[in-house]
Fold:
Amino acid sequence: MDLQTLTYIVVGATFALYIAIAFKSKARSTSDFYVAGKNVHPIVNGMATAADWMSAASFLSMAGLIAFLGYDGSVYLMGWTGGYVLLALLLAPYLRKFGKFTVPEFIGDRYYSQTARVVAVICLIVISFTYVAGQMRGVGIVFSRFLSIPIELGLIVGMGIVFLYAVLGGMKGITYTQVAQYCVLIFAYTLPAVFISFQVTGNPIPQLAFGSEVAPGISLLEKLDQIVTDLGFAEYTSGTKSTVDVFFITLALMVGTAGLPHVLVRFFTVPKVRDARASAAWALLFIAVLYTTAPSVGALARLNLTTTIQQAPVGGENANMVYAERPGWFRTWEDTGLLRVNDLNGDGKVQYYNDTDPDFAPRAKAMGWKGNELTIDRDIIVLANPEIAGLPDWVIAFVAAGGIAAALSTAAGLLLVISAAVSHDLAKSVFARNLSDRAELRVGRISAGVAILLAGYLGYNPPGFVAQVVALAFGLAAASLFPAILLGIFSMRVNREGAIAGMLTGLLFTMGYIVYFKGIFIEPLAENIPANWLFGISPEGIGAVGMILNFTVSLVVSAATKKPPEGVRLMVQSIRVPRSN
Structure:
């Protein structure tokens, strides 16, 4: 059986499973649709949270970043996992004690203002659509490569699946679907890692293979350092980012994790307050399985990429990699456009090296080479890795199913919080307060359908590679929602004027900085280079600065205006005593 047929069977089986769960868990009330009836077991919720949060960025893109950035890629590991500590300690139990449906609802009630609620909805929609763009790009990549269908058709199929289990099942359907998706994605991620770890190092445990020897007296990382430096690249184990930028990116990702609306809403779904904290702990445990495997996957992928091809030395044993005859995996990824060759010197071969290195470039020029001829999209590394290593087709088919599961699980969670924001926080609470539960549920499903259409468009016109876009979404969450939620729980003095001013300041500053340097959906206004960054902080880390501005403006404006009403202060006191029921 060929790879394409196997992939259709495996992916089709997982789709059938997701749809069956959605029909069985169909939401029949607004409570089911928004918070799964508040009766999800903390272990189940932890697994669903892990799937909700481990998006296409975690599954597809993070190992690619580690493969090409090396040490610098560790900021994503530290930031995206550290945020769950903040969630467990500072937010989860208190939000569950509040006991409502959505994050904007908490902000609206805590700051006794419909304006604050609407601003929170705007922040939520901006964050969620920025985030979902990365997920739909991941869906498009998997479909275009493994199912041999146009990206547009692949996106339509993915949108249809999400529509069925998000619109029909709501949070109740999504929760149990995400449990199945976690099992699929974690199996698909770790299985090839075990195979390749054993193949390269003789150790089947990826976490241990990362520090194992690939030859007598030579460790995996030492070998990788030697190869990439011979090609003119920086050492794999050395960092090129400044300490300031590393700190701010890590902080933005940590705080952004704790401020993501589709993650926060998961803690409204458990029966008791103590279950919210337990859910965060279980989620971190389930996430750790993938995140402790990712460094090994990235390193082994980079090693395989540069050593499983014919070598032609130029001033060093591994100075240049030449594809005299392109292997099968190479040609198939060229067909997707995510791996490109530009034969600059017309010799029929592919030179792969760092043509910006001042020491290596002159030697390459003397050989008649006119520059690096190979461009590899970072998002394909996890998907291409089993093919590069020559693993069986059934393993590759499961990796494709895992990539789709990771993208769809997060996309569904994001689309649901957008739907809840429109139906519950705008339609029900602002524009039509007499809306019945049945009508509100209908509005929620319609808004989810519209959101899915917009998500498909973003997948077809992606603003960047997956992890980059997701990192920017985390920065927006850190700069806008996190300070308002944290101050709403732990400060009785912050009022509506301060919260509104703070959220708008953080959101607009961070968005402006990102647009200025990255462009996202428009052309950037300035060249995205460290010399132009504020204090040397990249757009991926600027959300931490936006957070500081948000905190500062909120506190200053609140100090200059009236104190919150006594009823609000009593509510804050009640939230801050998270009893076990």
About this structure: Residues 3-301+387-575 form a domain with the Sodium/glucose cotransporter fold (CATH 1.20.1730.10). DSSP finds 24 helices and six strands in the chain.
